[in-house]
Every structure is written in structure tokens, then in C-alpha cells.
Write a structure and sequence with these properties.
The chain is built from 21 helices and 20 strands. The protein is α/β, with parallel strands linked by helices. It has two domains: 379 residues, Alkaline Phosphatase, subunit A (3-Layer(aba) Sandwich); 106 residues, Gyrase A, domain 2 (2-Layer Sandwich). The strands form five sheets. Strands 1, 2, 5, 6, 7, 10, 11, 18, 19 and 20 form a ten-stranded mixed beta sheet that branches. A four-stranded antiparallel beta sheet has the order 12-13-15-14. A hairpin with a 2-residue loop joins strand 12 and strand 13. The longest helix is centred in the middle third of the chain and has 24 residues.
Length: 563
């Protein structure tokens, strides 16, 4: 028995010194194409996929490795958090993008993740006012944008450093945070300004627009949607939700309505460009801009690997307004599939998919509306944090602590920021106040846990899955003093005065579950059911290319990608 173990050990050790196959030894791809679909919950391709063609999602699934049990492992599943995790392979605790918004204790104001007053938009008329369903944009106090708040390198940065200045690196999205988080510190990012109805960038990237961007913005492609409608792609009876077009919990956005067709209105309408993003038109424009970029910048036309990120945002906007279980969400997936097929055809014709590594995933999922869940016997509700200050428990706590002022300075979901100056003025201990307030918050309907940050810092917390997810989200300077975890299916439905049908940001599986599909040279088709994590994506790309890992990456390369 001892001899058998010795022989086995000898053979294993000897194997370590044999030549091992490496993708880095193969001819590198001409292009790394990273596609992110905002709010593409992990089940939606399958759920709405019966009418999808062979050229979009199914093209990638037929040729690549599809991970059907992929999850984000951090707690706050929002747009900037998920995008930056996909680009860096790091948890928000390391990359620093802990939320779409956080409270800046030094300035005493809310902070939008990619805002940067030092780098205003190129040729901008002013702050992008955003839309009725995107309050994070209106929360920005400056029109400046940069990746400066991302604390580690991205895979795009590593590609740029590995291959040198000849490597071309770009990120494109409707959302600034969707483009910037992926293009990293070394690339160039373009996003759609709803205030100006055109694709823009900031002076962080360049001082003027190249002629091709000016030409695209002047082409009239945005204005061509004026006085048209979002209509169903197919016959109504082919849809799962064909007979449920008007559900009472869907948001009745002004002038847009809850039923098909949805009117975009005139080009000079107050919400014209916003309405485009509330429909597949937003993705169509993004795909067209990205195709133009490929041609104009000669992407994938030499022996140096280029990087292009395209983040499609319409699924997120449609999900917020109508919910993921809606006729609009279903039709949007079909039309996104058409846009994806058209875009992949363009990449195939201009670069060659046989020379392209394609990685598709999502920044987060989404919950269903409590009323829809109630139809299936699942009870939930929405939460209004503004009422907590008047709850009996909060009032009782102020009396108990002898506080004459307020205890809470700011709530930027999911973080509670305590009024540290007032607490210090009252002679109270910050950790004690956090503990006591967390106990009271945890008693409120809809709150599963309220976790004081000091317990995360001192590791005085149970090591269950939810606690690990909250810890992965914790950054000492940016995170609040208490993290609120809502009960499953509960969420805050108020977006700056607009009541929405769905809002993500929890550690529950409907928010963490996303697809991961990897297709490219040397990769054999497979469907993998084991659990993997989104921090593995950047590690997989780096290993495939042979580059250095992004500086904060702690994910593992996805083994099935490498035969």
C-alpha cells in the first residue's frame, strides 16, 4: 500500500514537469469581444428562446461553452458593480465600485460611480439629465466621466499593456458606466447621451471626436425613430405573455403606455431619447455604432489582438419599467437576438469569428414584481426606506441613546450612512449606534438582515453565503455603516419618484444568476451545469491570451474553455 502511494506520487510529480498545452502558445485571436447584456437574468434566454434564430444567442451557444449556473458572488447586484466585476475579476471590495451611488463623507453628498469633474464631456452642452427611470444619472453633480474610481486594472488594461500601443481597446454602451467599466483605464469609451441624443465621450479619453463619430451622430439614425412605434416582432399568440400585455404593476411611463404599440413620439419630445432606451431601439443604435467603430478603427485587421466591449442596456430599462415577466421583456429578448445576430454577422465579415474570442455575460439579474409572484403563492412587497425614521423602533432607539438629532445621514441603497458628526457630538459610540440601529432595522417587514460594517471589518460575522456576499461588497471608505439585505423578492420600487416594476441589487439568486458563454478558436461546444462565478471571466480571458491577470483578480480560469 505504501509502495502504491509512492508510485502514484512519483507519476503525478513527473507529470508536472511534462510540457503542458497552453492557449498562449496558439495564434492569438485578432479580437476579444466582450458582450454584456444589462439585466439578462440567467433563465431568460431559455425562457423566451423558443422563437430565437440561429444567428444570435444560439450561434454562440452552438459553438462555445455555455455556463448555465453562473453567479455574481457579491451582494449588491447593480450595473456598475457587475460590469466592473466582469472586467476586473475582482470583488467590489477590491475594485471599489460598491454601488451605482454611494455617499461621499468628505463632501457630504451622494456620488455617482464614474463621475469625475476633471474630465467633462467632449463638446457637451451640460450635465446629462438622464431619464425618469435612471436616477443614478441625475444624481451625478458633474457631466465629467472617467474610470478613475476603479481601483484595480481591467482585462482591457492588461491587453493594452501586454500587446502595446498597437492594440486597440474600446467600450460602447448606452450607459456611461457600461462603457467605462469595460474599456478600463487604457481604452476609449463611448456612450449614448440621452440629453443630447448622440454618442459621447469625455476628455479623459480624447479632446475631440474622430470624424467617424461626428458622421454617425449627424447621420440621422437616432432621429429616424421619431413618430414610430415599438411593435411586436411576431404574432401575439407566439408569446408566452401574449395575452398579458396590460399588467397592473407595469409602469405607465408618460406618453409610452403599458400596451403595444409603444409610441416614441416626435424627435423634439421631452422623453424621445429616453423612450428609445426603454425599447429594443437602444440596443439597435448601440449595435450600429459598434459596427461603425469596427470599420472606422480597423478593429481586428492586424496581428495584434484588439479588445471591444459592447454592453446592451435595453433589457435593463425594459425590465425596470415592465418587469422581466412581461410581453415587453419577451419581445425585447427576441429583438435583442436579432441585433446580436446582425452584429455577429458583421464581426464575422470584417474580422472573422474564427479569429475572435467572444465572451457574453450579464451584470445582474432581476426580481419579479410582488404581484406577479403572489399569483404563484409567493408573498413579497416593496420597501420604502424613507418611512424608517418615523418607525417606533427608530424613535425608541433615539430615546434609548439620548440622541436629540437624527441618526441617519444618508441612505444609498443598500447602505445606511450614519450621521457620524452628530453621533460624536452626542458623545455616543459609532459601533454601538450601528449595532442598535441594525437591530431595529432587522425588525422591519421586508428586512432580512441589517449588518453593521464594523463587524465586517473585524470579521465578527457568521460565515454563511449571505455574509460572504456582503463582505465581498465592503469597501471601508465607500460602503455605508450598515448594509441592508431585504427579504427574498422585496425591493425598493421608487426610482426618484417613479414607481418601477422591478429593481435589482440583492444577494438572492434571481439577481446573482447570469449566463456566461465563451466561444472562440480552439473552444469546443459544451453545456456546463457546475456553479461558476463572474470573477472567473477576466481570469479566463487572461489565461486564454497569456496576459497578466488584472491586478485585483482572484477568480479561476473556466476549465472547460481549455481542452
Amino acid at each position: 500500500m505504501v509502495m502504491s502511494k509512492l508510485l502514484l506520487t512519483t507519476f503525478i510529480c513527473a507529470g508536472l514537469f511534462l510540457p503542458q498545452p497552453s492557449f498562449a502558445q496558439q495564434t492569438p485571436p485578432k479580437l476579444v469581444l466582450q458582450i454584456t447584456v444589462d439585466q439578462l437574468r440567467g433563465d431568460l434566454i431559455e425562457r423566451y428562446g423558443s422563437e430565437l434564430g440561429d444567428g444570435g444567442f444560439n450561434r454562440l451557444r452552438a459553438s462555445g461553452v455555455t455556463y448555465v449556473n453562473a453567479h455574481h458572488r457579491h451582494a449588491n447586484n447593480e450595473t456598475i458593480v457587475g460590469h466592473t466585476t466582469l472586467s476586473t475579476g475582482a470583488d467590489p471590495a477590491m475594485h471599489g465600485m460598491v454601488a451605482n451611488l454611494w455617499y461621499d463623507r468628505e463632501t457630504g453628498s451622494q456620488f455617482y460611480n464614474v463621475q469625475d469633474p476633471d474630465y467633462p464631456l467632449v463638446g457637451a452642452a451640460g450635465i446629462d439629465a438622464g431619464s425618469e427611470i435612471d436616477p443614478t444619472q441625475r444624481a451625478a453633480t458633474t457631466d465629467g466621466r472617467s474610470p478613475g474610481n476603479i481601483l484595480v486594472s481591467t482585462i482591457a488594461d492588461e491587453i493594452q499593456m501586454f500587446y502595446g500601443p498597437k492594440a486597440k481597446v474600446f467600450g460602447v454602451s448606452v450607459k456611461d458606466r457600461g462603457a467605462i467599466a469595460m474599456a478600463g483605464h487604457s481604452g476609449q469609451a463611448y456612450w449614448f447621451s440621452k440629453a443630447e441624443g448622440r454618442f459621447v465621450t469625455s476628455t479623459f479619453y480624447r479632446d475631440d471626436y474622430p470624424q467617424w463619430v461626428k458622421d454617425w451622430n449627424d447621420s440621422g439614425k437616432v432621429g429616424a425613430f421619431a413618430n414610430t412605434w415599438w411593435t411586436l416582432r411576431d404574432a401575439r399568440d407566439s408569446y408566452l405573455f401574449g395575452e398579458r400585455d396590460d399588467q397592473p404593476w407595469e409602469t405607465d411611463f408618460p406618453g409610452y403606455g403599458r400596451v403595444f404599440p409603444h409610441d416614441f413620439g416626435p424627435a423634439d419630445g421631452k422623453y424621445f431619447t429616453t423612450l428609445l432606451t426603454l425599447s429594443p431601439a437602444g440596443d439597435s443604435l448601440t449595435g450600429d455604432f459598434a459596427k461603425t467603430l469596427i470599420n472606422a478603427e480597423s478593429i481586428g485587421q492586424d496581428d495584434v489582438t484588439d479588445y471591444l466591449s459592447v454592453s446592451f442596456s435595453s433589457t435593463d430599462y425594459v425590465g425596470h419599467i415592465f418587469g422581466p415577466s412581461s410581453l415587453e421583456a419577451e419581445d425585447n429578448i427576441r429583438r435583442l437576438d436579432d441585433t446580436l445576430a446582425d452584429f455577429l454577422d458583421h464581426v464575422d465579415a470584417s474580422v472573422g469569428l474564427e479569429h475572435t474570442l467572444v465572451v457574453l455575460s450579464a451584470d445582474h439579474g432581476a426580481p419579479d414584481h410582488p404581484a406577479y409572484l403572489a399569483e404563484h403563492g409567493i408573498m413579497a412587497d416593496t420597501f420604502d426606506f424613507d418611512r424608517t425614521d418615523m418607525q417606533p423602533g427608530t424613535v425608541r432607539l433615539r430615546v434609548k441613546l439620548g440622541s436629540t438629532g437624527g441618526l441617519v445621514r444618508n441612505f444609498s441603497n443598500p447602505y445606511v450612512y450614519l450621521d457620524r458628526k452628530e453621533i460624536n457630538k452626542q458623545g455616543l459610540e459609532l459601533d454601538t449606534v450601528a449595532d442598535e440601529l441594525a437591530k431595529e432595522l432587522a425588525l422591519l417587514p421586508g428586512v432580512a438582515r441589517a449588518i453593521p460594517s464594523w463587524r465586517l471589518r473585524d470579521s465578527k460575522l457568521n460565515n454563511d453565503v449571505i455574509s460572504q456576499a456582503v463582505r465581498a461588497n465592503f469597501h471601508a471608505e465607500r460602503s455605508g455603516d450598515i448594509y441592508i439585505v431585504f427579504e427574498p423578492h422585496w425591493f425598493i420600487a421608487d426610482f426618484d419618484g417613479l414607481t418601477v416594476a422591478s429593481a435589482h441589487g440583492s444577494p438572492w439568486s434571481y439577481d446573482t444568476h447570469v449566463p456566461i458563454i465563451v466561444a472562440g478558436p480552439g473552444i469546443s461546444p459544451a453545456r456546463v451545469a457546475r456553479r461558476v462565478e463572474t470573477v472567473d471571466v477576466a481570469a479566463t480571458i487572461a489565461t486564454y491570451l497569456g496576459t497578466k491577470m488584472p491586478s485585483g483578480a482572484f477568480g479561476a480560469p473556466l476549465a472547460e474553455v481549455f481542452p
